[in-house]
Structure formats: C-alpha cells, structure tokens
Design brief:
- With 73 residues, the chain is of the alpha+beta class.
- The chain has a single domain, classed as Ubiquitin-like (UB roll), CATH 3.10.20.
- The protein has two helices and four strands; from the N terminus they run E-E-H-H-E-E.
- Strands 1, 2, 3 and 4 form a four-stranded antiparallel β-sheet that branches.
- The chain is elongated.
C-alpha cells in the first residue's frame, strides 16, 4: 500500500537542537497530496499521544521531511 512517511526532528529542552526524531505514516488513499499530509501532521504532532510518545521533547514542525513510499513489490 502506498503511503507517506513524515520525519519530524525533535529537541529535548536544555539539550542541543534536534536530538531525536518522531515518525508519522499516512496512507496515500486517505491523503493523496503532500499538502494534505503536511496539514494533517501539523495537527497530529500536537496531540497528547504524540507529545507523550516523544517524552515531552519539542517537535520542529518547520523542519519536517515528507517522503512518498510506493510499496509495489
């Protein structure tokens, strides 16, 4: 199944910038365009679950990287 993979650099307060990353994936069937994915990930990164998953580290949404994966084998 084709999907988008989104990599968001994270920074733990008090440490050097970009000390980790958080990944999100979205199916291409629900999010056909890159702009759709960027809009959705900006919403999702602020959710309580996402913040808890990255242990409170700050997500750098201005440095996201969106990659298309076509899973045809």
């Amino acid at each position: 199944m084709a999907h988008w993979a989104v990599k968001i650099p994270t920074r733990t307060p008090g440490e050097q910038p970009r000390t980790g990353v958080q990944w999100f994936t979205y199916p291409a069937s629900r999010f056909p365009g890159r702009s759709d994915v960027v809009e959705k990930v900006r919403e999702d990164v602020a959710t309580e679950d996402a913040v808890r998953h990255r242990s409170g580290a700050v997500a750098d949404v201005d440095a996201i990287k969106v990659v298309w994966h076509d899973d045809l084998l």
